[in-house]
Prior knowledge:
The chain has helices at residues 18-27, 42-50, 64-70, 89-96, 131-140, 155-163, 177-188; strands at 12-15, 36-39, 78-83, 101-107, 125-128, 149-152, 170-171. By secondary structure, it is of the alpha/beta class. It has a 4-stranded parallel sheet, with helices on both faces. Helix 5 (131-140) links the parallel strand 5 and strand 6 (149-152). The protein starts with 11 loop residues before the first strand and ends in a 10-residue tail after the last helix. The model is unreliable at 1-8 (pLDDT under 50).
Amino acid sequence: MRPDGAGTGAAWLVVTSATAVRVVAGRVPRLPAGVRVACVGEATARAAREAGWPVDLVPDDESAAGLAAALPADGRPVFFPRSEIAATTLIDRLRARGIVVSEVVAYRTVGTGGDPIVLDPPPDAVLVTSGSVARQVAARMTPLDPRTHVACIGPSTADAARAAGLPVHVVAAGRSAEALLDAVVETLHPNPRTGRSS
């Protein structure tokens, strides 16, 4: 992303997490003129708006694949600040469409150690918000108590949890903390008449 927005057109800034928004906003006081912002979902878009960025695109399918499909091939290059361990789905699909992508590692996910975590009493639910969280849970908290529900923030996170060997009991309808908590409440405290929380 050139600071003057020159070239084939001012760049798209593509962000796939609130963390990426915070990192970029912490280093760049304001976005260069003409830069368009695309966010993977509403939670990321909310963080972008809180940072003072205009949000130009949020795909209906709130996933990397959905964002890659929704981003227009309008000649604008894409700047993608990402996690060190981000999957390559977005980059691969954009480049397959002929879109020029510049990526930079904006932040790293650091584990909190390798010792097993034993909780007594066991939790009713473990909230899994990313593939990296799924892998940490699998490495440090298994075997989970059979009464503990594993709740994932979206389908791609659920896939990552299953790949890490975790059972998946709950998948949130939307990719937000609110949707995840709603799904957990509905699972743990169903309304006996409707099967849903009251």
